[in-house]
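User: Modeling request: complex.
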Amino acid sequence: MTDTKTERGLSALGEPNVDLDCSGLLCPLPVYKAALALNQLNTGDLLRLVTTDPGALRDVPAMARQRGDTLLSVEEAEGRQVFHLKKGWLS
Amino acid sequence: MTQVLEEINVVDPPPRKKRIALVASKGTLDQAYPPLILASTAVSLGWEAGIYFTFYGLDILHKDRFEKLKVASLANPSGPIQLPNILGAMPGATAAATKVMKKWMVDARMPSIPEFLEMTRDLGVEFFACSTTMGVMNVKESDLIDGADVAGAAAFLDYASEADISMFV
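Assistant: Request completed. Predicted assembly structure:
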């Protein structure tokens, strides 16, 4: 269930530059693959990341904080997490 | 449930990269994974990471041995096969425990140890090979994978002295 504010917020994120599906992968692979993808992007680009590792709910925000990327949204439903990340300063 | 986070400005880079310094001292399959998982994560976070491979841990860098790391069936109460020690000592028990763990890893889509080494090396993890271990166990530099730097304790401590986190595995 999403409210109008949430829908407006998500659509405001824009289309991701890269869509990465890490379903079925365990730590450290979602973070590792997300980092590889983010390393290829320019500052301000968007990555959409899908994970199923329950640890990712803590790991992806931690990764973003450490790398200087911005976590724009987190969506969780039925054991699946969707993250939108904005690439920061790390090159 | 969707949570849209308030957008914040992109933060400035820190004045220097964080660093983790790890010691890998164990040569069993189960103990080879943790330092490689931590190092691959650290470099994914944009940190520097270095691993000092010493004593049996040097087998992880050994070209002829790193695909043959084993899980002990004896005196390993948490191992992949649960055997009384008297049976764990039987021929083939260690091979069986190793086979089970390798299958777990494949089923969970986890990289093998050689794959992990390649992943971490490609992202700039430094591999220090303990020169004393090489002398004691008669390991030559040519026995080790590419990218392993032969070094003693002083060189590693010099590296670790600039680290934010140090761990002994």
